[in-house]
Amino acid sequence: MIKEEYTQDQKKEISNQIKNIPLEEVEREMNQLFQIGENACTMSPRSRIGNNVVDYFTFSQRLSTKGKYDVNFYEFLANIDEFKKKKFIQNMLEYYETVKNKTKKKNYYTVMKEVYNICISAINIIRPLVYMEIYTKYKPNCILDFCAGWGGASVAASALNIPKYIGIEINQSLIEPYNQLVEFLKERSKTNIQMIFDNALTIDYSQLDYDFVFTSPPYYFIQKYENNTTYTSKKEMDKKFYIPLFLNTFNHLKQNGVYALNINKEIYENVCIQLFGHAHDSYPYKKSKRQNNYDEIVYVWRKK
């Protein structure tokens, strides 16, 4: 049985061993985002500018996301002796010991995280630059992001001084990190950030005034985020999650508003086409591929 016995302080210390980001670096990258502004489309898909802003506040919580074998990084770490019994993990650890990290430049936790990424799951973020490129293309006044995730969207909105950003997030462990992130952004940007920590399925969207939706909802069984409902099949997830959530948020979008989803082709074909018809616009999402090489596309509909 998988057990994980780290305290929150211990988790924070472990995450700091992997990514020890000084506040000065966060300030520097945020300033770079302000300078890039509406020119995010000119940046390389490999550019990581702004990622440290997100990671400074929410990286520790991201490590609690479960990947393959229904295990998160902290659980993987706490049960490493059990996982070493799997031959491919054992081989990967030996490869790091004898080749990849032979000079011991990387510390223990960094090595373990890289092995976890390769053998279990890489828990990626959406880069702030990706959000900025999309926001610049559609020029929203108020963004609704009903699966707010790790904070990249709010960072991007703030970098562009978009009037308002509404983020909805079910993960209660992100309340304090978001409080700190919003405070950081509020001191530097004119963007009004409203965070709602609740189940996106239960929100009264008629009370929210938004002209643009862009979000990246969880995919079928690829990763399990804290506090998210577990579904037994793709059809059940379609019926109880995607369909009611997409319909509700689309129905309360302002007329002439833009509705954009970062999803894979399977969700698009299974759910979105029957709800909204074929997308009015679509383009590849500029990021590394998720586990299982799922191709991700941004699909866009205009509400007329």
Q: What features would you describe in this structure?
A:
The chain is an alpha/beta fold and 304 residues long. It has 2 domains: 66-119, no CATH class; 125-302, 3-Layer(aba) Sandwich (Rossmann fold), CATH 3.40.50.150. Helix content is 44%, strand content 12%. The protein has helices spanning 8-18, 23-36, 51-62, 73-78, 80-83, 87-100, 108-119, 128-138, 152-159, 175-186, 234-251, 265-276; strands at residues 142-145, 164-169, 192-197, 212-215, 258-264, 281-284, 296-302. Helix 9 links the parallel strand 1 and strand 2. The longest helix has 18 residues, at 234-251.
How many E strands?
7
DSSP strand content: 5-15%
Number of domains: 2
What is the H level of CATH, i.e. the homologous superfamily of the largest domain? Vaccinia Virus protein VP39
Q: How do the SSEs run, as a string of H and E?
A: HHHHHHHHEHEHEEHEHEE
The profile of the biggest β sheet is: 7 strands, mixed
Q: What spatial form do the alpha-carbon principal axes imply?
A: globular
How many angstroms does the end-to-end distance come to? 52 Å
The helix content, as a percent range, equals: 40-55%
Strand order of the largest sheet: 3-2-1-4-5-7-6
Total helices: the number is: 12
Mean pLDDT: 92
